[in-house]
Amino acid sequence: MPAQAQAFAAAVGAGVASALVYDLLRCLRRATRAGMLVTGALDLVFWTAAAGMTAAAGALCGVKGLRYYMLFGALCGFAIWEAGVRRAALAIFAALRRAFQGEQGRK
């Protein structure tokens, strides 16, 4: 696989991971009914994590500097998460939660 294609695939993975972090932080924000200050802090955490994951993906693939295909790959990964993987993951998490709650009820 060419180096650019490998880096793009890694960026797509970083985009999916960034979207997962975004959803987790969104759930945290909603659960705590966060105000403006906490929401701003969580946004900063998200952007730092997303930039770090994309930079790590590039570094692992030997990309030097900022490349547009890396940013496009991260956006594609985020879109893939939002388009379908998110629904499947949420269904799996809900099933696991129900199973865990059922185990707790039996004890």
Features:
3 helices, mainly alpha, globular
Outline the structure in words.
The protein is mainly α and 107 residues long. Helices cover 88% and strands 0% of the residues. The chain has helices at residues 3-32, 36-60, 68-106. Helix 1 packs antiparallel against helix 2 (36-60) and helix 1 packs across helix 3 (68-106). It is globular and about 55 Å long. The termini are far apart. The model has no long low-confidence stretch (mean pLDDT 86).
What class do helices, strands and sheet pairing give? mainly alpha
Arithmetic mean pLDDT: 86
What's the number of helices? 3
Low-confidence stretches: none
Major sheet: none
Strand percentage, roughly?
A: under 5%
The tally of beta strands, per DSSP, is 0
The H/E string reads: HHH
Percent of residues in helices comes to over 70%
**Gap between N and C termini, in Å?**
52 Å
**Rg (CA only):** 17 Å
Shape: globular
Topology readout:
Elements lengths: L2 H30 L3 H25 L7 H39 L1
Helix pairs in contact: 1-2, 1-3
How would you briefly describe this protein structure?
With 107 residues, this protein is mainly alpha-helical.
